[in-house]
Design brief:
The chain is an alpha/beta fold. It has 16 helices and 26 strands. α6 packs across α7. The longest helix is centred in the first third of the chain and has 22 residues.
């Protein structure tokens, strides 16, 4: 496909035409703060679809190139190539004033951000678009969302997989087809704003090692310190605080930056201080000692108990997915159906979505190619998506259909595209498996993946506020091991790189969890969402949570969660150990309080 072909013209598609910079990088590993870019390709496309530039180069990373079997870039091939700082200016000029596009865009964006920081300059990108996130919204009938799979689906030739330039050319074809599908479905593009961030955020830092010992509890008067105790420091100290922290860590203590109910002792030279930590310590009854006492106790710290190792557990088979059944043939008449509910107040719509799941169907939160039916509740006729639903030939029903699906005929609305309606029923992804639909509280055992688990939360586009997805990595006591195990927008990765937040768009965020690399101290990862200010999840509506073994893999599970009306914080899901296994639970528990209260409950507080 020629990138300059007139068929690539997107200018008639209002809201879908931008100046694009399509990017692909090959890297020495998967962690941007540690690994390096080995090759980079950039193709620029104008709003009229015409290609305006192309650049690709190998790079000398100054380190081992990593998995040569994946990218084929050996040290010999890279020898003599320019370093990134030698091409940064040219790449920056191609990215300037364009939307960066990549498949799994945050991966490429983060790698480029670190490389630009090492070159002592800025990554000139203000917006990015992820074709992976865009296709999750479109939901084409494919077995997965890998670049090669989507290329085959959209008829884009792929000649050299994992070659940066060829992957970028393939990406151009996928972008064109995906934008056309998005326009047909009237989807909002998942553009992500990329405000400039401090260079220090892209400066490689050594990972923080979790404490190897379990917290033995509070320090009793006259008793010694014991390995694993959680110790916080507040106020001015005679020794440098970094030195005190270092000595505590060397002795096997868990040096914390905040105070919680599980803090063993607070070190302070000012008994009357009004610091946040001191106030919290007083509230929780945490004992307080001065610096001299702490130093004396450091000379004789008792041995602690290690974290509980995962023990044997019975293997519980994953639930079988019911085969699709015709309407009215059994107790699960909506098996194989994906149903979008429109209209009514949130509580009524939530009840309808719950009924869809009870009947064996999957409740959708957005219009996509996988939606088979639409239930219109009172007021739903005015939904902005109704004209497209009519054009797509979807079967539209009223609430009576959920009482008895066999009672109401499933006839497309007048004016529907009959050809589209006819082909929708035949769209079955080759080699695909239907996700397990989990109700609220539903649990499933996770197979061991070869890549981190991706837990993706999505909701209907919403213009009255922002939803933030966060994660807490918890120990046996349901507390963070250290403050940095709270992952959020301002700190999108925990120190070990095992839990990561990905922002895929204004209505989708992902938490990745590398369960195979989590330390024994990590027993549970809680994933939550929060809204700042006055709005609640009753205003947002349903949140869909999908779990997949990798960024491009098909979902293993899917759950649609509704809070009631007033909740501003919603625990979405959790991954937790059960013996040697990891399990996933769809939680859906809402709270009226804000994220700060939820964080304090897990042992995270404001450090002074």
């Amino acid at each position: 496909m020629s990138l300059a072909s007139p068929s690539f013209d997107l200018t008639p598609m209002d809201g879908y035409a931008h100046d694009w910079a399509l990017v692909d990088v090959e890297t020495s590993g998967l962690i941007p703060r540690r690994d390096r870019v080995l090759s980079v390709a950039v193709v620029t496309i104008g709003r009229d679809g015409e290609q305006t530039g192309e650049f690709s180069t190998l790079l000398d990373p100054g380190c081992d190139p990593g998995p040569v079997d994946v990218h084929g870039l050996t040290t010999e091939r890279l020898r003599g190539a320019p370093t990134f700082d030698q091409v940064a200016e040219r790449i920056g000029a191609m990215l300037q004033n364009r939307v960066l596009v990549a498949h799994n865009a945050q991966f490429d964006y983060d790698f480029l951000a670190y490389e630009f920081a090492r070159a002592r300059t800025w990554l000139p990108v203000s917006q990015r678009l992820c074709t992976l996130a865009l296709n999750r919204q479109v939901d084409p009938p494919t077995a997965d969302m890998k670049l090669g799979t989507l290329a085959a689906h959209y008829g884009v030739p792929q000649r050299h997989a994992h070659d940066a330039l060829d992957d970028t050319r393939v990406l151009a074809g996928i972008l064109r087809a995906s934008l056309q599908e998005a326009a047909r479905l009237a989807l909002q593009l998942p553009l992500v704003n990329c405000p400039p961030r401090a260079e220090s955020q892209f400066t490689p830092t050594p990972p923080k090692t979790p404490c190897a010992y379990r917290n033995p509890g509070r320090l009793a008067p006259g008793s010694p310190l014991r390995q694993g105790m959680k110790v916080a420091i507040t106020g001015e100290t005679v020794c440098a605080r970094a030195e005190l922290i270092g000595r505590g860590v060397a002795a096997g203590l868990n040096m914390m930056g905040s105070v919680s109910h599980h803090t063993s002792v607070l070190v302070s030279n000012e008994p009357t201080t009004e610091s946040a930590k001191a106030r919290r310590a007083a509230t929780e009854g945490v004992p307080v000692i001065d610096e001299d006492t702490f130093l004396q106790l450091l000379s004789d710290v008792e041995a602690g108990a290690g974290h509980q190792a995962p023990g044997p557990a019975p293997v519980i088979p994953a639930p079988r997915q019911a085969e699709p059944a015709p309407i009215g043939s059994g107790a699960r008449p909506l098996s194989g159906r994906r149903v979008l509910v429109l209209g009514a107040a949130h509580t009524e719509a939530a009840g309808a979505r719950s009924l869809v799941v009870e009947l064996g169907g999957s409740a959708a939160v957005n219009l996509s190619r996988s939606v088979t039916d639409v239930v219109v509740l009172p007021g739903g006729d005015n939904d902005r998506r109704m004209p497209r639903i009519t054009e797509l030939g979807l079967s539209v029903h009223d609430e009576r259909w959920l009482v008895d699906p066999a009672m109401t005929a499933t006839v497309p609305l007048p004016g529907a595209d009959a050809d589209v309606a006819a082909c929708r029923t035949a769209e079955t992804p080759v080699g695909a498996t239907t996700p397990h639909v989990l109700p609220r509280g539903g649990v499933i055992d996770l197979p061991t993946p070869t890549s981190p688990w991706h837990v993706t939360a999505s909701w209907a586009p919403w213009e009255h506020g922002e939803v933030d997805v966060v994660a807490f990595v918890l120990d046996e006591d349901e507390q963070v091991t250290f403050d940095e195990d709270f992952v959020f927008y301002g700190a999108p990765e925990n120190p070990g790189g095992t839990v990561h937040l990905l922002t895929n768009g204004p209505a989708e965020q992902t938490i990745t969890v590398d369960v195979a690399s989590l330390p024994p101290s990590s027993h549970r990862v809680v994933i939550a969402a929060a809204i700042a200010g006055g709005p609640s999840f009753g205003d947002v509506g349903a949140v869909q949570v999908a779990t997949a073994p990798g960024d491009s893999a098909a979902p293993l599970t899917r759950a649609t969660l509704d809070a009631a009306t007033s909740e501003r914080t919603l625990v979405l899901a959790e991954l937790y150990r059960r013996g040697p296994l990891w399990r996933f639970r769809a939680v859906g528990q809402g709270y009226d309080h804000g994220l700060d209260a939820l964080a304090r409950g897990y042992g995270v507080d404001i450090a002074d």
